[in-house]
Write a structure and sequence with these properties.
The structure is a single chain. This protein is α+β, with helices and mostly antiparallel strands and 262 residues long. The chain has 8 helices and 6 strands; from the N terminus they run ααββαβαβααββαα. It has a 6-stranded antiparallel beta sheet with strand order 3-2-1-6-5-4, sandwiched between helices. Helix 1 runs antiparallel to helix 2. It starts with a helix and ends with a helix.
C-alpha cells in the first residue's frame, strides 16, 4: 500500500514537472553550442524540438488543471443540489405531519436522524408556518444536548412550560442550561425560543432507535402529550422508517460533505 502511494506521488511529480525538465535541457543545450568553434546543427535542432515540446506540455498541463478545477466545481454543485433535493423531500414530509398534528402558527415540527458514524443528529426535515421558525441554522446537532438528547436517552421528553423569554429572559436561559445543557449563548442564537416542547424517540421493528421527532411551540402548555404519542404510535413510525429506506440513495454523506466544505 505504501509503495503504491509512493509510486503515485513520484508519477504525479514527474507528470507535473517533466515539461520544466525539457525546458531546462533545451536552454542548456542551446547555450552549450556556443563553446564549439564549429556549430553542430543536429544538436541545435534536437534541443529546439525539446524546447517546443516543453512549451506544448506546459500549455496542456495548465489546460488539464483548469479542466480538473472545473470538474471539481461541477461535482460540488451536483452534490449540493442532491443534498437540497434530499432535504426538500423531508421538509415535505414534515409539512404533512405538521398538518396532521393540527399545529398552529406558533408551532414547529422537526425530524432528526441519528448518524451512527458521526454520533450526531442530522436535521432531516422541518416545517413551520412562520418562515422564521422554519429556518435551519445548522444541520448537525450534538447527541446529548437539548430536548433532542433527552428524548433520545429517555425515549421521550415533554416540557410543558419554560419561563417566557419575553418577560423572564434570564430565567429562560437558566432553565435551558440547567435542564438541557443549552448555554445562554446558544439560546440567543435559536431561530425559535420555544417554551413548550415534546420529543419522541423512534425505533425500528428490531427496537433499534433511529430518529427523534421534536414538536415545539412558543406558547406554554399548548401541546398535548397523549395526543402526540397516540398519533406517532399509530403507524407514523413505520412510515418514517420506510421513507428513510426509500430515499437512502439520496442521503448526503456527512464525511464527504465536510471534506469538500458543504
Amino acid at each position: 500500500m505504501n509503495s503504491r502511494s509512493l509510486g503515485e506521488k513520484v508519477g504525479g511529480w514527474f507528470q507535473e514537472h517533466f515539461h520544466l525538465g525539457l525546458n531546462a535541457v533545451a536552454f542548456a543545450g542551446i547555450s552549450f553550442l556556443d563553446i564549439f568553434d564549429r556549430p553542430l546543427w543536429w544538436p541545435f535542432w534536437l534541443f529546439l524540438v525539446c524546447y517546443i515540446a516543453s512549451l506544448i506540455l506546459d500549455v496542456r498541463g495548465k489546460k488539464s488543471r483548469a479542466q480538473l478545477d472545473d470538474e471539481i466545481t461541477n461535482l460540488k454543485r451536483v452534490i449540493a443540489d442532491g443534498s437540497r433535493n434530499f432535504y426538500d423531500v423531508w421538509d415535505g414530509c414534515a409539512q404533512i405531519l405538521f398538518k396532521e398534528c393540527q399545529l398552529t402558527n406558533l408551532d414547529r415540527i422537526s425530524i432528526y436522524k441519528y448518524d451512527k458514524q458521526e454520533d450526531e443528529f442530522r436535521l432531516l426535515g422541518r416545517h413551520a408556518e412562520n418562515p422564521s421558525f422554519r429556518k435551519r441554522s445548522r444541520y448537525l446537532y450534538p447527541v446529548n444536548d437539548g430536548v433532542i438528547g433527552k428524548a433520545w436517552t429517555d425515549g421521550k421528553c415533554f416540557e410543558k412550560k419554560l419561563p417566557s423569554p419575553r418577560t423572564s429572559l434570564k430565567k429562560y436561559y437558566e432553565e435551558n442550561e440547567t435542564k438541557y445543557g443549552i448555554s445562554p449563548e446558544t439560546c440567543k442564537n435559536l431561530t425559535m425560543q420555544s417554551t413548550c416542547l415534546w420529543g419522541y424517540r423512534l425505533s425500528d421493528e428490531k427496537d433499534i432507535p433511529f430518529a427523534v421527532i421534536i414538536v415545539e411551540s412558543t406558547k406554554r402548555e399548548s401541546l398535548n402529550d397523549k395526543k402526540l404519542h397516540a398519533f406517532f404510535d399509530n403507524g407514523k413510525r413505520e412510515e418514517i422508517e420506510n421513507l428513510l429506506s426509500q430515499f437512502a440513495f439520496m442521503e448526503p454523506n456527512l464525511r464527504t460533505a465536510k471534506d469538500i466544505g458543504l
